[in-house]
Amino acid sequence: MSKERIKIAPEMFDIMPVEYQDLVERATYGKEDRGWKDIGTSKELIEEHSLCAGCPESMAFRYILAALPAPEDTVMVGSTGCTSLVFHHVGVHNIHSLFGNQNAVASGLKRALSVRFPGRTKDVVVLAGDGATVDIGLDMTLQAWFRQEKFTTICFDNELYANTGGQESGLMQKGFVAKMAPMGKTFEKVRLPEIARESGCHYVVNCTVSKPNLVEKVIKNAIHVAREIGPTYLQLYTPCILEIGKNSMEGLQEMRDSEKPTERFAYKEYVSDHAKELLTELAAKAKERKEAAKKQLAAKAVAQAG
Ligand SMILES: Cc1ncc(C[n+]2csc(CCOP(=O)(O)OP(=O)(O)O)c2C)c(N)n1
Ligand code: SF4
Ligand SMILES: [Mg+2]
């Protein structure tokens, strides 16, 4: 399907930038079960980034882009913050919204796309920091959920305003002292996943980005549920290694430590009944596809042997 839309007129091919030729020829557009394992072997939808070296947000970005079910039919909505530095390098349609407005912009966009392309799948995915999602944009975040807007909100939770030097955010943990918040946080981390569930989200996950297969699974689930049923929310821990003074391997360990059962990023998931039905159906279809592919491979091997 998608390769038909992402192509270059033959007479123009040689004058297109080599990057674009490569994208059209080797990206995973149209591959039904695309995922993080395609990273490194197919053309990736992100090559460079301008985040700090080793920032967990950069690997989270790769996993998310690799897991989008239909990248050519996806529009991502970003907001000001470290994440917004990456969108220029991403091979997916995207919009930069005014800081905090991302869920309002995504609401209008999703509705406009369904009018402009009736009957066609168009996914909208918001990707913003914790400052944008829970502090300055909280009104827009919640109102989109109350209205049951059919898109996914992903929060890269690094527990502070990283891009402006380390101010306190509502998702910062109690007692944390940041570079621009020397008094220490005086109240508990806001429980946004719980608020998301109570505000009408049908699929909510709180986790770190230490495991690519897990990130892939929750991204796919969230997008499919948003497409068919209603709003979904993912809160992904992407520690700011600059603020906490760690290198990339230590950043990975920081995530592993924070996902232990009693810690603040222990895996938490909420799935509404309606969403459960849909996900069970999709899992059955994916299993069928896998079995069919296995049979095809076996038949090919027999034919080659004969
Ligand atoms: C309307 C508006 N208000 C404030 C700012 C300043 N500002 C830029 S980035 C930022 C913090 C971003 O924090 P967060 O959303 O957590 O993203 P992070 O940088 O941590 O990834 C702020 C307050 C702005 N650019 N626009
Ligand atoms: S400031 Fe922190 S969150 Fe931003 S790019 Fe650097 S390490 Fe990542
Ligand atoms: Mg932040």
Q: CA-to-CA gap between the ends?
A: 34 Å
Q: What count of helical segments does DSSP give?
A: 11
Structural class: alpha/beta
Spell the H/E element sequence: HHHEEHEHHEHEHEHHEH
Q: Count every beta strand, where a strand is a DSSP E run of 2 or more residues.
A: 7
Bound molecules: thiamine diphosphate, iron/sulfur cluster, magnesium ion
Helix content: 40-55%
Largest sheet: 7 strands, mixed
Q: What is the beta-strand fraction?
A: 5-15%
Shape: globular
What average pLDDT do the residues reach?
A: 94
Oligomeric state of the chains present here? single chain
Sequence stretches where pLDDT stays below 50 over 5 or more residues: none
| Largest sheet, spatial ordering of strands | 2-1-3-4-6-5-7
**Integer-rounded radius of gyration:** 20 Å
Explained architecture:
The protein is of the alpha/beta class. It contains eleven helices and seven strands. The protein has helices at 2-5, 18-26, 56-67, 102-116, 130-136, 138-146, 192-198, 212-228, 241-244, 248-258, 273-305; strands spanning 74-78, 93-96, 123-129, 152-157, 203-208, 232-237, 268-271. Strands 2-1-3-4-6-5-7 form a seven-stranded mixed sheet, with helices on both faces. Helix 8 links the parallel strand 5 (203-208) and strand 6 (232-237). Helix 4 runs parallel beside helix 6 and helix 5 packs across helix 6 (138-146). The longest helix is centred in the C-terminal third of the chain and has 33 residues, at 273-305. The model has no long low-confidence stretch (mean pLDDT 94). Bound molecules: thiamine diphosphate, iron/sulfur cluster (SF4) and magnesium ion. Thiamine diphosphate binds next to strand 3 and helix 5.
